[in-house]
């Protein structure tokens, strides 16, 4: 029974031996199989071998929480251990020493102090050597290799020690010191360079001391917020940044010469590039030469000359550009503005200047070729809130991009061509504006006159047309024309409150004309397709027809695009009762015009409505059928005529007469006009019961009136106050 627990005891013992914490003490050195892990578990420190050599051992710091080992700091990068045994220990005088089994020292922190010091790996990735009371003796953040981690301080200037210089690996899998490095400009603390050897390879944009900036970055669904600071304490100037939104973010410098901001994508298990520079050939230092700049506003960034300059050598842009006009100093020179620029190298910084003072520094100095001014009060800087830069040498290494916000003022020599071009720049727009205004006025005048003339001619022709007669030798019809102003007054400017109906190509308003009783004014819609012929038909025919049951036409009005008809008002019933709500021929609904035998169709509908007591489009009493025609045809086909007859007259009407009326009605409402009988034939069939009847064709018009096709001609309710025509033939 006791033997069962022996393997478990051994396993627990081995686990305790393999466990590692985040501290290193004098009594506990770090051996090749040991690893220090930060308290939060983000970073690890230990021995590692690069991918290109398993016989070389290095002490380094890498990300512990990701599968891909990414080393961010190496201690003995130029002095690897080649023996199988080594250790990292703290000496009695508080010094970190990396040595091999033969006692050779491969790296040391070069520190000294009392006994009892310890080293701890923080969760920021910083390896700190500290005294027993917690005083910092040494830290890896002050000695970076090729990576800048969040909260790390990159020294730009320091009175007591040299500034930070980051050096890329020599190549893939080779952490030794490479040829590419990054450090501050020795001539100015305002900019950083990437170097290849001792030559500048790429120059970053200027930064400002005592400033804070922030921004959000996204890549493949991952977003971070990054804050960057430049701190000037008087004794030192350093750069640092912090990040929220992701635990694994780093700035690294590659052996290829590129600097990148990278974020770990846990979904793809790889590093995603947020930002990278340089990313175009023309961004490389001085690649566009003096007075040339890299233009990022193009699809493919390329070199261009500043305005007022021309290419010196078309085969070699690195030679730069030359002036088109030589400088003459004094008032004969002028400055052009270049926005969105990265200011060039080799500038002179003049502190505490206003814009005018900065401009004067260059204008009054004949050797000054350009200047740039920036107000830094809105970027969180303290102290000097201005930045005045002037150039006395040829400007070199410039860029233009939308994400840059510097203004450059370039000095150019004035010439007769410039004076003439300046005058032309003023005169040409002025003359062009005057010509455009004159042309617009002429076009508007001509169009207005043409419209007015057209309306007058149209009105005259309409009046002549309305006064004409249809028949040769006939008598002209006389009726009054009512002024548009009187109609507007009578209807209270066509008030919505006075509208009593709409349809029949327009709306109908109730009004009170001076000296008359109430009238109904039919205002035809301007968008209506009812033309002069239809308007004349309505006016002339209603004027001809005088009947006690027909509404009387009192007059009409034609005013510009307006066509109005004035009827007598029917006080006993609203006008919409007579004008609206009845059946309209289906072709009229879709194409807006009547066809031959459309009155036959309408008579057939009327006949079916009389027999059934059902409106053509009534949703009631027809079960699942779309309209009365389809409903009647199906009952006739199934020999169920008695189901269609109105119950109020069913018992008093002979079924054979009712059946014949339904049969004739179905013949009248056939879809094809050629299949419908003439009205003369309809009358003959009704009067002669023995006349044989044809078989009606099944109707194909299955759509309801409220379910019309999208391209139907009109959605308005149509009036019966329109005439239908039939072709008359002798009986």
UniProtKB/TrEMBL annotation:
Domain Apple as annotated: residue spans: 329-408
Chief location of this protein within or outside the cell: membrane
Organism: Miscanthus lutarioriparius
Localization: Membrane
Sections of the chain in a coiled coil: none
Location of the Protein kinase domain: 494-731
InterPro entries reported for this sequence: Bulb-type_lectin_dom, Bulb-type_lectin_dom_sf, Kinase-like_dom_sf, Pan_app, Prot_kinase_dom, Protein_kinase_ATP_BS, S_locus_glycoprot_dom, Ser-Thr/Tyr_kinase_cat_dom
Protein name according to UniProt: Receptor-like serine/threonine-protein kinase
Organism ancestry: Eukaryota, Viridiplantae, Streptophyta, Embryophyta, Tracheophyta
Keywords: ATP-binding, Disulfide bond, Glycoprotein, Kinase, Membrane, Nucleotide-binding, Receptor, Serine/threonine-protein kinase, Signal, Transferase, Transmembrane, Transmembrane helix
Superkingdom of this protein's organism: Eukaryota
Catalytic activity entry: L-seryl-[protein] + ATP = O-phospho-L-seryl-[protein] + ADP + H(+); L-threonyl-[protein] + ATP = O-phospho-L-threonyl-[protein] + ADP + H(+)
Transmembrane segments: 426-446
Domain Bulb-type lectin: 21-142
The protein's Enzyme Commission number: 2.7.11.1
Pfam families with a match to the protein in the record: B_lectin (PF01453), PAN_2 (PF08276), PK_Tyr_Ser-Thr (PF07714), S_locus_glycop (PF00954)
Family in the record: Belongs to the protein kinase superfamily. Ser/Thr protein kinase family.
Recorded GO MF terms: ATP binding; protein serine/threonine kinase activity
GO process annotations (BP): recognition of pollen; response to other organism
Binding site for ATP: 522
Membrane topology: Single-pass type I membrane protein
């Amino acid at each position: 029974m006791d033997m069962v627990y022996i393997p478990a005891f051994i396993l627990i013992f081995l686990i305790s031996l393999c466990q590692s914490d985040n501290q290193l003490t004098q009594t506990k050195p770090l051996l090749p199989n040991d690893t220090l892990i930060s308290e939060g578990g983000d970073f690890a420190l230990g021995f590692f071998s690069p991918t290109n050599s398993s016989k070389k051992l290095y002490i380094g710091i890498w990300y512990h929480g990701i599968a891909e080992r990414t080393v961010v700091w190496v201690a003995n990068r130029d002095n690897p251990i080649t023996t199988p045994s080594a250790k990292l220990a703290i000496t009695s005088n508080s010094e970190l020493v990396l040595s091999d089994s033969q006692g050779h020292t491969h790296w040391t922190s070069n520190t000294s102090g009392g006994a009892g010091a310890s080293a701890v790996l923080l969760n920021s990735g910083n390896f700190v050597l500290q005294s027993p009371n917690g005083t910092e003796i040494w830290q890896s953040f002050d000695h970076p290799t090729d990576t800048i981690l969040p909260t790390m301080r990159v020294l730009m200037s320091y009175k007591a020690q040299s500034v930070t210089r980051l050096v890329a690996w020599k190549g893939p899998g080779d952490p030794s010191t490479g040829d590419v490095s990054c450090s501050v400009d020795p001539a100015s603390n305002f900019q950083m360079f990437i170097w290849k050897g001792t030559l500048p390879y790429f120059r970053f944009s200027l930064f400002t001391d005592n400033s804070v900036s922030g921004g959000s970055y996204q890549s493949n669904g991952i977003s971070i917020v990054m804050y960057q600071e430049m701190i000037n304490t008087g004794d030192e100037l350093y750069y640092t940044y912090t990040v929220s939104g992701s635990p694994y973010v780093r700035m690294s410098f590659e052996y290829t010469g590129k600097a990148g901001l990278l974020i770990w994508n846990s979904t793809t298990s790889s590093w995603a590039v947020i930002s990278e520079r340089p990313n175009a050939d023309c961004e490389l230092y001085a690649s566009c030469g003096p007075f040339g700049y890299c233009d990022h506003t193009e699809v493919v960034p390329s070199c261009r000359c500043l305005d007022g300059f021309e290419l010196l050598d078309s085969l070699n842009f690195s030679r730069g550009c030359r002036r088109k006009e030589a400088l003459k100093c004094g008032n004969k020179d002028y400055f052009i503005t270049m926005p969105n620029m990265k200011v060039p190298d080799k500038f002179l910084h003049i502190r505490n200047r206003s814009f005018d003072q900065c401009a004067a520094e260059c204008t009054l100095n004949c050797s000054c070729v350009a200047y740039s001014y920036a107000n830094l009060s809105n970027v969180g800087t303290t102290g000097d809130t201005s930045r005045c830069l002037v150039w006395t040498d040829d400007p070199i290494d410039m860029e233009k991009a939308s994400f840059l916000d510097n203004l450059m003022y370039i000095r150019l020599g004035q010439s007769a061509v410039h004076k003439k071009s300046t005058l032309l720049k003023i005169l040409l727009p002025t003359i062009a504006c005057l010509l455009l205004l004159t042309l617009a006025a002429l076009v508007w005048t001509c169009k207005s006159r043409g419209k007015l003339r057209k309306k007058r001619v149209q009105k005259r022709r309409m009046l002549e047309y309305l006064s004409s007669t249809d028949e040769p030798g006939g008598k002209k019809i006389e009726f009054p024309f009512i002024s548009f102003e009187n109609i507007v007054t009578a209807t209270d400017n066509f008030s919505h409150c006075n509208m009593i109906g709409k349809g029949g190509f327009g709306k109908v308003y109730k009004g009170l004309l001076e000296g008359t009783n109430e009238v109904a004014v039919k205002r035809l819609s301007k968008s209506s397709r009812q033309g002069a012929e239809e308007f004349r038909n309505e006016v002339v025919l209603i004027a001809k027809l005088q009947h006690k049951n027909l509404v009387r036409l009192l007059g009409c009005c034609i005013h510009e695009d307006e066509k109005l008809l004035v009827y007598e008002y029917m006080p006993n019933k609203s006008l919409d009762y007579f004008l609206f709500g009845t059946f309209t021929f289906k072709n009229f609904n879709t194409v807006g015009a009547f066809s031959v035998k459309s009155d036959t169709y309408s008579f057939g509908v009327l006949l079916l409505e009389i027999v059934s007591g059902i409106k053509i489009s009534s949703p009631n009493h027809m079960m699942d059928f779309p309209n009365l025609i389809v409903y009647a045809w199906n009952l006739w086909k199934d020999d169920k005529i008695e189901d269609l007859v109105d119950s109020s007259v069913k018992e008093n009407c002979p079924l054979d007469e009712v059946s014949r009326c339904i049969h004739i009605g179905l013949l009248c409402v056939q879809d094809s006009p050629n299949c419908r009988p003439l009205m003369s034939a309809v009358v003959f069939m009704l009067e002669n019961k023995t006349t044989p009847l044809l078989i009606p064709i099944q109707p194909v018009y299955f759509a309801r009136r409220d379910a019309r096709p999208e391209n139907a001609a009109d959605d308005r309710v149509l009036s019966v106050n329109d005439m239908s025509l039939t072709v008359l033939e002798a009986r």
